[in-house]
Design brief:
By secondary structure, this protein is an alpha+beta fold. The chain has two domains: 406 residues, Ammonium transporter fold; 149 residues, Alpha-Beta Plaits (2-Layer Sandwich). It contains 20 helices and eleven strands. The strands form four sheets. It has a five-stranded antiparallel beta sheet with strand order 5-7-10-6-11, with helices on one face. It has a two-stranded antiparallel sheet with strand order 1-2. A two-stranded antiparallel sheet has the order 3-4. The longest helix has 30 residues.
């Protein structure tokens, strides 16, 4: 592949650097869509994909991919030119193909996340970068049998000299990664607790699975940022090999149109299907469009890009749900659907939408047949290699982490990392509580906020005790309600003279056991819903007034208005002054 100003052009190398930065995007997507206890493990795998791949690509992979064609176009001949002729070696193409190789390896990480031994994954990464990817990439990009149709079909045959189209790697990179991910996920088995048998017990056997349990990722924000990074870097992924500025601009447009269309397609499809637009699936829809347009980004027009994206957006949802709920293959991030299914679709779509040779533009099936022959050959090579590799790992070093390691997290057991989020509290605070705490210079999980504001926390002279309050009854009122009703409740309590409240963000449910939502097409029974817990201790203000004010402020008539609990309190002590009982609850003059 040659970029602007030749294969050593500046844009060509900038594009390669953008492809390298896709490692950051993949790391964030995979980390955000999985659980926090495995974040460090996933980051390590994405880091090592490139580092291990660099070494073996130098030693073997580059020769197999870029070496002199041999064995009827099936493989390149490795040589030592990169060691013996450093000054004249084609380092631009080497670096470009190296970063593409690393991308292929990274795709599998997400599908095998949260239960794969780190050692086994490293061995897999070495093999796919050294042998699997270089050989099949040689077929189309290294001068092999798919780079031109002539050695296979003959110029005078039915197919003429129609060549295989995969401009930037829908099949050579993404389809290979997706197929590898599927095989790895099947041989590895699902995460513990993902599937349940007929009795509701966790099972690792796909044939015994009767129920599917959704396991949401821990940080959608990180996952979304990863998608944006990937989209940005994809302009280099697809456009680096453009022959001139005009073609580059066309590639950028087709890439954008297909991705935008795919994103909207996924959103609408999940909205209709689940009654609400699915956020994580829509993010996958963006990636699906990027993958699908990669093969034909330089061969299709804007109409073709639109239809490629529209199909990709629906296809990713269907495949995610089919492999999860029908075939019971656990793919935490949707790698098989995004890269495998849409890598296949994007490659086949070239046979339909190519403006020069596609069926819809020329009426000829030649390009479509060539595309099908190519993906069948690539799939066969990948399946054979990956089944052999993963079975070898399974019966030697082992491929799956132990049950204890998986449940407690790979970060702890594989890397000695107690948490990838040390010193961060996972409990969110209501906007009002956050604002008050920031002003006071503190940030506890549960904050006691006097109605007078931060200044009432400052030291002041102790007030004299009122004898009339010595024997007053002390009562604690605990109110659990929706977060959205907190402001109204606070104002109502303030109006009747309640001078201090304690607010905590909690999770809980009543007799209805929460609500049901959908995550990536799987029903999630949200038994624990976010609530606000408000606690007040009163003596001067009658409990009946507190209860009446709270009910009036919180009542909507719908399930979820909350509960009010009343307790007797033995005593109260103001720490600073030593006042007790009734006196400790009163305002200081």
């Amino acid at each position: 592949m040659e970029g602007i100003f030749g294969s050593s052009g500046v844009w060509f190398l900038i594009g390669a650097i953008l492809v390298w930065f896709m490692q950051a995007g993949f790391a964030m997507v995979e980390t955000g869509f999985t659980r926090a206890k495995n974040a460090g493990n996933i980051i390590m795998k994405n880091l090592l994909d490139f580092c291990l791949g660099t070494i073996v690509f130098i030693l073997l992979g580059a020769g197999l991919m870029m070496g002199e064609d041999a064995l009827f176009g099936l493989v390149g001949v490795p040589n030592l030119d990169l060691f013996t002729d450093f000054a004249n070696y084609d380092w631009s193409n080497f670096f470009f193909n190296l970063v593409f190789c690393a991308t292929t390896a990274t795709i599998v990480s997400g599908a095998m996340a949260e239960r794969t031994k780190f050692l086994s994954y490293c061995i897999y990464s070495l093999v796919i970068s050294a042998v699997v990817y270089p050989i099949e990439a040689h077929w189309a990009w290294g001068g092999g049998w798919l780079s031109t149709a002539e050695p296979l079909f003959g110029t005078s045959g039915y197919f003429g000299n129609v060549a295989y189209i995969d401009f930037a790697g829908s099949s050579l990179i993404h389809f290979v990664g997706g197929v590898s991910a599927l095989i790895g996920a099947i041989i590895l088995g699902p995460r513990w607790g993902k599937y349940l048998d007929a009795k509701g017990n966790p099972t690792l056997k796909r044939r015994d699975a009767k129920f599917v349990r959704a396991i949401p990722g821990h940080n959608l924000t990180i996952g979304a940022l990863g998608v944006f990074i990937l989209w940005f870097c994809w302009y280099g992924f697809n456009g680096a090999a453009a022959s001139d500025m005009t073609q580059l601009a066309q590639i950028l447009v087709t890439t954008t149109v297909a991705t935008a269309t795919s994103t909207i397609s996924t959103m609408i499809f999940t909205w209709i299907k689940n009654k609400k637009p699915d956020v994580s699936m829509t993010l996958n829809g963006s990636l699906a469009g990027l993958v699908a347009i990669t093969a034909g980004c330089a061969a299709v027009d804007i109409i073709g890009a639109f239809f490629i994206g529209a199909v990709a957006g629906v296809l990713v949802v269907v495949v995610v749900e089919v492999i999860d709920k029908k075939f019971h293959v656990d793919d935490p991030v949707g790698a098989v659907a995004v890269h495998g299914a849409n890598g296949l679709w994007g490659t086949i779509a070239c046979g339909l939408f190519s403006t020069s040779t596609g069926l819809f533009y020329t009426g000829s099936f030649a390009q479509l047949i060539v595309q099908l022959i190519g993906v069948i050959a690539i799939a066969a090579w990948t399946i054979v290699c990956m089944i052999g590799l993963f079975q070898f790992l399974k019966h030697t070093v082992g491929i799956r982490a132990g049950k204890t390691e998986e449940i407690e997290g790979l970060d702890k057991h594989e890397h000695g990392l107690p948490s990838a989020y040390a010193d961060f509290t996972p409990v969110p605070l209501a906007a009002e509580v956050i604002e008050a705490e920031e002003l006071c210079g503190v940030m506890p999980v549960a904050a006691t906020l006097p109605e007078g504001g931060c200044e009432t926390l400052a030291p002041s002279a102790a007030s004299s005790s009122a004898e009339t309050g010595r024997g007053a009854k002390l009562s604690k009122v605990v109110i659990l309600t929706r977060q959205s009703r907190f402001e109204a409740l606070k104002q109502a309590l303030n109006a009747i003279g309640v001078t201090g409240i304690t607010v905590t963000q909690v999770l809980g449910c009543g007799v209805q056991k929460g609500a049901s939502e959908y995550y990536r097409g799987v029903k999630v029974d949200m038994e624990l819903l976010p609530k606000v817990k408000v606690e007040v201790v009163v003596s001067k203000v009658p409990v009946s007034e507190v209860v009446a004010a709270a009910r009036k402020a919180l009542y909507t008539g719908r399930i979820g208005d909350g509960k009010i609990f009343v307790y007797e309190v033995e005593d109260v002590i103001r720490v600073r002054t030593g006042e007790i009982g009734y006196d400790a609850l009163q305002d200081e003059e």
